[in-house]
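User: Could you check the structure of this?
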Amino acid sequence: MPRGLRFRLVPDRHNFLTMRHFLFLLFILPSLALAAQTVTVLDADDEKPIVDVAVYNEARTQFGYTNHSGRVSLSGFSPDQPVWFQHFSYERVSYTPEQLKQAGGTVRLTTKTFEVEEFIVSANRWEEKSEEVPNLITTITLPAVKMQNPETAADLVALNGDVFVQKSQLGGGSPMLRGFATNRVLINIDGVRLNNAIYREGNIQNIISLDPSVIERTEVIFGPGATMYGSDALGGVMDFHTTRALYSTGDSIYIKAGALARYSSADDERTWHLDFNLGGRKAAFFSSVSWSDFGDLMMGSHTHPEYLRNEYQERTATGDTIIVNEDPRRQVASGYTQLNTTNKLRFKAGRYLDVNIAHHYSHLSDVPRYDRLIQVRNATLRYGDWYYGPQVWMMTSAAVRYNKPSAIFDEVNLTIARQDYRESRNDRKIDDPYLNEQTEKVGIWSANIDFDKLAGKNRSLLYYGAEYVRNNIHSTAITRNIFTGDEEPAGSRYPNGRNIYDSYSLYCGYKFNFSPKFTLNTGARYNYVSLNSEIADNSFYNFPFTAIRAANGALTGAAGIVYRPDGITELAVNLSTGFRAPNLDDLGKVFESAPGVLVVPNPDLEPEYLYNIDLNVSRELGSLFLADASFFFSYLDNAMVRREFSFNGMTIIEYLGEESTVYAMVNAGYAIVYGTQLKAEIKPVTSVRIKSALTLTRGFDNDDEPLRHVAPLFGSTHLIYEKSFIK
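Assistant: Sure, the predicted structure tokens are below.
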């Protein structure tokens, strides 16, 4: 070899790049294969596609739902984590990406023996396994709603037999939870609280503003929910989830439409509903409209003759005329109409960012107050008119979910909402030409931000957040001549000046799994509530004050432990506290609650606090029987109750031409509520289920007076036959 000649091995550039690309593809292709994979979920018995199956990864940072064809895209799912498939009617399963590939992208689910919810969201605002939550929770799912077809949202919450609903008129419905109702239970829709500063102690019908045709899931948590939901959640929380706008799982636009027509002979109801969904890969739109026309209600033929409509009033050009009712069971002047619309726009603003913008609108016509219209005085009807004016509710909300894990959170949810309420009360004595009209308008801004973080091998969960709510209330009143139309100012229900009600909250919680058998759930919340109310014109009532100022803070908490000794038994103990700050209705209203009873403001009213203990037991006996029992005891300290009162030193004053005894909301020493809720489900054969629920509640205050909203013994039994006849 000649001196100076050297050899050097130089790798071929083309071959080097090829090798690098090969290694890249070796590791990346499995991920791409999973990301591009579309899975079809079928019923194992009849091979029919299953709609709305929740699909998520092990860390619960990626979610999806099957469409009407049972298909869902796994785009964005991690290739190294199992994929879970869950539906309320089927057993939950998980598959690795390799198993999904071997199954040809098809997953078959088997029907559950009992309809036990594996996941809930109401208790702590975040999705958790029901077996790890110590609270008693009942869930009303979409199949139950479709089967029983409730007329209103008030009827919907009563479907399972766990919630007692009181109705003073056909256009009403006031749910009662564990001896509490109205402003002591919380209504929540898509993460936004509906309770406002004029929710009253008396029965309310605000829940019927919700459209049951677009509610796909309802969860009712029993007992104090103040730790996660703040003031008012003493008896419990009703959490409504409306239909989602669904994305397409393929390249074509996902189009889905639904329609409903219903007739009810009991109240001559006619309802029409139409909805549709348009979904692309990154944007989706959902829209619906519902119209209901309710006629006069026909009451039953047995017992309660005091509710018969023997005669009714009709207004003529010259005055009121009393007419004998040919059919006293027909409750003349009880019907009303209702319009609901829902529109949702959803889009992916990034890989980890999902945005939902929603608009809800509800309009109720005049709703007659039937129990007032049948009142008799001096052997004749007392009222010529008594009705709630058009009840209008409108809510626009924007919810943003960001689920890219970081050091301080795995997921963050921000919800901002604006609500507008309008309601009125209108009454006129018989043969009186003057109609009294009181109108309230409430504007509500709310914002809450929630964080959650999973930690450790035991999947412990840390969650925390903040909330702000502002209520702006405008109250007016007039007296109008029904013949001439002339109007005069009158005394309003609430102070007629500026009314601002603010709430600030910070909250956190921690769930710790000691072992597969033990779970500890804890939480705490600090809530600060203030009211600034001014009386612009004091000439109507001559109050001894011209402003109402209130500011209250409270620290509430909860701690519960769940013990699962085996796969069929669950024991839970939960200690919790609740808090309710007096709102404008408690502190500043003037109204006639009953003939001869006048309620006046009490600006010295203070908050009430609830201390509660729950014991819940659940056990399955093979595939035949499932039993649940819950026992609770609640102590309400500084309870707000209605009692006789003095106004400007007088206990009897004249109001609207009548002498009335003066009452006001005051703080009693205490109140006690206790009871039990029992549930059982029997499945004697494959296609038959029998479900029963029974609730017994007792309650009284320190004067041994029974609490107003403690329901009588109630329950229900359902015989259910399920069989698929169409393959």
